């Protein structure tokens, strides 16, 4: 009983101290998050939209002709230097042929002479056939004009038919021989070009400026086919080859203008025109691409073969039209829509669009000049915090807030 009474006394004392000391109530901070939307806008205005098709490719060797040789021996003389202007057929270098080179040159020369003889023989045959054709034509003409064969019945007689057939056969042989002449001339040209690759004298195939000379007096050449000796550059505009997708190829035609940039020539843009469009294309890994050749309007010493290039082929240009940033146009179920700010409120408007570029889109209907369209939105979080409040009992003044 004494133990219980002592315990009860302790509890009462603690309760009295709590009441006297006061009770502290802490109110925690409360954060309330809200978002304020900020709009990025643009104004509908009039301007020019250029619709383009992008393509990548490389510069071709269009205005450069490579001089090669298959001769073997020692370089005796180099007759030109980089930057020299040469005429077609002008000597570039001279080679002292070794035994193998001399044998190949002699064989090539023999083949050329044989081809030349074939051309001469073919021409002789052509002249003979021509004479025979005219002779038989004259025979047929005389029969056709004679009184003996002036009726349809008389012209069915064998003598008249034979004269006519002889003339037609002679004419066919003459025309056939003309094809033989073309073949023998082609063989002659081929044999001459082959001889030039084995000749001790290397000549310029075209007129132009010599560059990239790879010969030095005393250099030993082996009998490798197609050894590059030098390069001749002419004034022809360079070409560049690009590839386009199957989606874009129907919209590319010969004659379209284009702008070209080269990765290795910073800050410069070249103009050109589409010269060829290959509509057969090639397929790789189920992807079909179509080659397009663009001829540049001007040349430059900085443009070199095989440089990486990018082209923008101009598909269509429209001036003085309503336009907005392309980023403002949204597609919903095949319909173009634009968000518009009117009286500070956002509205969604259906529009009809026309041509577009990477940055601008034509508006055909749905908007007016001066309308404000939304191109994007941003949001910022706003936080509100309440201050902590303390209250208690005890001391002068009773309950107080701190």
TrEMBL record:
Keyword Electron transport (UniProt): no
Gene3D superfamilies named among the record's database cross-references: 2.40.30.170, 2.40.50.100, 6.20.50.140
SUPFAM superfamilies tied to this protein: HlyD-like secretion proteins (SSF111369)
Domain Multidrug resistance protein MdtA-like barrel-sandwich hybrid: 64-232
Superkingdom of origin: Bacteria
Domain YknX-like beta-barrel: 243-307
Keywords linked to the UniProt accession: Transport
GO cellular component: a single term: efflux pump complex
Pfam families the UniProt entry points to: Beta-barrel_YknX (PF25990), BSH_RND (PF25917), RND-MFP_C (PF25967)
Sequence ranges assigned to domain Multidrug resistance protein MdtA-like C-terminal permuted SH3 in this UniProt record: 321-376
Molecular-function annotations in GO: efflux transmembrane transporter activity
Protein name, entry field: Uncharacterized protein
Gene source species: Candidatus Gottesmanbacteria bacterium RIFCSPHIGHO2_01_FULL_46_14
């Amino acid at each position: 009983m004494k133990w219980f009474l002592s315990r009860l006394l302790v509890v009462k004392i603690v309760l009295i101290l709590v009441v006297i000391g006061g009770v502290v109530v802490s109110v925690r901070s409360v954060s309330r998050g809200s978002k304020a939307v900020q709009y990025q806008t643009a104004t509908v205005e009039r301007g020019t939209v250029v619709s383009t098709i992008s393509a990548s490719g490389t510069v071709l060797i269009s205005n450069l002709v490579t001089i090669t040789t298959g001769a073997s021996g020692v370089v005796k003389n180099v007759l030109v230097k980089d930057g020299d202007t040469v005429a077609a057929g002008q000597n570039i270098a001279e080679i002292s042929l070794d035994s193998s080179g001399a044998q190949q040159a002699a064989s090539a020369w023999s083949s050329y002479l044989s081809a030349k003889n074939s051309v001469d023989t073919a021409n002789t045959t052509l002249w003979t056939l021509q004479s025979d054709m005219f002779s038989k034509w004259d025979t047929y003409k005389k029969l056709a004009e004679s009184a003996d064969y002036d009726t349809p019945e008389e012209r069915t007689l064998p003598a008249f038919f034979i004269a006519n057939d002889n003339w037609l056969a002679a004419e066919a042989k003459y025309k056939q021989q003309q094809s033989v002449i073309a073949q023998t001339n082609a063989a002659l040209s081929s044999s001459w070009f082959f001889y030039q690759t084995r000749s001790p004298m290397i000549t310029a195939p075209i007129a132009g400026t010599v560059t990239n000379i790879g010969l030095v007096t005393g250099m030993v050449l082996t009998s490798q086919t197609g050894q590059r000796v030098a390069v001749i550059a002419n004034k022809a505009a360079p070409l560049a080859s690009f590839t386009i997708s199957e989606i874009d190829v129907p919209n590319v035609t010969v004659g379209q203008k284009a702008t070209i940039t080269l990765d290795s020539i910073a800050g410069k843009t070249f103009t050109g025109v589409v010269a060829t469009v290959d509509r057969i294309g090639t397929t790789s890994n189920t992807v079909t691409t179509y080659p397009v050749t663009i001829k540049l309007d001007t040349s430059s010493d900085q443009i070199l073969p095989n440089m990486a290039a990018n082209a923008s082929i101009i598909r269509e240009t429209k001036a003085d039209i309503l336009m907005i940033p392309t980023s403002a146009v949204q597609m919903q179920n095949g319909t173009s829509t634009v968000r518009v700010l009117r009286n500070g409120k956002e509205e969604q408007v259906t529009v009809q669009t026309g041509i577009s570029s990477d940055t601008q889109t034509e508006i055909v209907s749905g908007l007016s000049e001066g309308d404000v369209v939304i191109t994007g939105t941003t949001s910022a979080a706003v936080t509100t915090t309440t201050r902590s409040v303390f209250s208690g009992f005890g001391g002068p003044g009773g309950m107080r807030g701190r």
